[in-house]
From TrEMBL:
Active-site residues from the entry: C2
Listed EC numbers: 6.3.5.4
Highest taxon, organism lineage: Eukaryota
Any GO BP: response to stress
Domain Glutamine amidotransferase type-2, first and last residues per copy: 2-185
Gene3D superfamilies tied to this protein: Glutamine Phosphoribosylpyrophosphate, subunit 1, domain 1 (3.60.20.10), HUPs (3.40.50.620)
Entry protein name: Asparagine synthetase [glutamine-hydrolyzing]
Residues that coordinate or bind ATP: L231, I267, S341, G342
Major enzyme class: ligase
Amino acid sequence: MCGILAVFGCSDNSQAKRARIVELSRRLRHRGPDWSGLHCHEDCYLAHQRLAIVDPASGDQPLYNQDKTVVVTVNGEIYNHKELRAQLKSHTFRTGSDCEVIAHLYEEHGENFVGMLDGMFSFVLLDTRDKSFIAARDAIGITPLYIGWGLDGSVWFASEMKALSDDCERFTYLLPGHIYSSKQGGLRRWYNPTWYSEQIPSTPYDPLVLRGAFEKAVIKRLMTDVPFGVLLSGGLDSSLVAAVASRHLADAEAACQWGSQLHTFCIGLKGSPDTKAAREVADYLGTHHHEFHFTIQEGIDALEEVIYHIETFDVTTIRASTPMFLMSRKIKSLGVKMVISGEGSDEIFGGYLYFHKAPNKEEFHQETCQKIKALHLYDCLRANKSTSAWGVEARVPFLDKEFINIAMSIDPEWKMIRPDLGRIEKWILRNAFDDEKNPYLPKHILYRQKEQFSDGVGYSWIDGLKDHANKQVTDSMLMNASFVYPENTPTTKEAYYYRTIFEKFFPKNAARSTVPGGPSVACSTAKAVEWDASWSKNLDPSGRAALGVHAAAYEETGDTKAANLMNGSPQKRLEMLEKAAAVA
């Protein structure tokens, strides 16, 4: 990840203004500690803080076309840059950077090239010939980008809002899959897949097609010139990423530089579910595994810094970001600059435990569509900013454009959780990688119950956060919360505590308006809370709030009932698996 800052139409283009842009850009240096760049053209400024992943020697930014009339600053990776370069044979490239292709595509195609990019990206481009500019963000919002407006009529863009909050009168996030054009005077959506309309698809499920698409997505993300690894929690998604990466690493160019043994990383409280499962997966795959531990107090001590970096007061995001933030620091200390992670699978396949209560395939599919569209506010924000805080880049193969198109075209009846058929959450993904002849993972890992990251690092982590917040926030403070915070009012002491920290760093209305709100259970949308009447009395983003579904729910009604819902012993789940195989 890198940090970008761009300003257009400043009323002041003095040396003092340039110094101010440099100062604001430094607020993003954690994202790109390897080099700083700045291009000035009259009243336009493009600044860049670089994290060098591809072509570390010559790929410093901003980047240019051949005659330097087009300038671009980019945060992200373009996985198909070699194929795109091959289509631009008449163009002369200055560097080996994957991002340089953006300047040349603009020169060749104008503003209508963004859909040609396969990758994760946010970029701002200036055409000095007419002082027009564009800014665009990747399809799902894997990389962050904010837009702001100054009182002098200036337009600003930045990777994080901390670079805009002092100098812009108003700012907000640039929507994923959109492009801003100064020529056309606003935003338009460049990403228009079939699933976006939320119409119910009907393509039959083909496990080999799904498996092949995911393997291709992982292989793309092995493109690197620096040391890398996989974040391995021991859950299904991260374990599949590790299994596929480990299987194909030897054939990747990266293996020539960094060897063919994959490095994996995990964090948790001592004795947590994740660390135990991750260790088992790592042993099975033969990876070089790094296991980190943290204490509840260490996590609490980091909260202010975490909230400053991730720029949200959303409860579940903070719970999960804190261990990821701590782990990223450890990873960077080992000299690793890029990791591959498993975000996005639960949104695509309905993996959160509340999906057990989806009443029909239509509502199931619409909920997955809504969850994918909102990823940029939750898991993408967490994965990007928690790692970028320490100059580490996170790549997410489940959010590959082609893979999403294939997965979201499948008839959602196949994604529905059907105990009568032995189908647990994300059954179609598990089944696609259930290869008897050449197993990707041990069966009990392949069919492990969903654990949200904030739960899997250790159940006492969330309990510890709640206890700490209860000591910081009085009953009177919470009772008067609607007067202190009339917008997106916190309803728990934990949420109130996080809000006070956020407001200290980001006091403007514009900042708080970037944070989502509304009732949620186990990470559901507000609409899905209606699926079970009991959930409205137990609104908490933890997976354990899915009463009657999670094996370690906050209020269990007995182990037998949990087992009957397929969330009991591994043996019980394997019996369900065998039943599913027979049906299939």
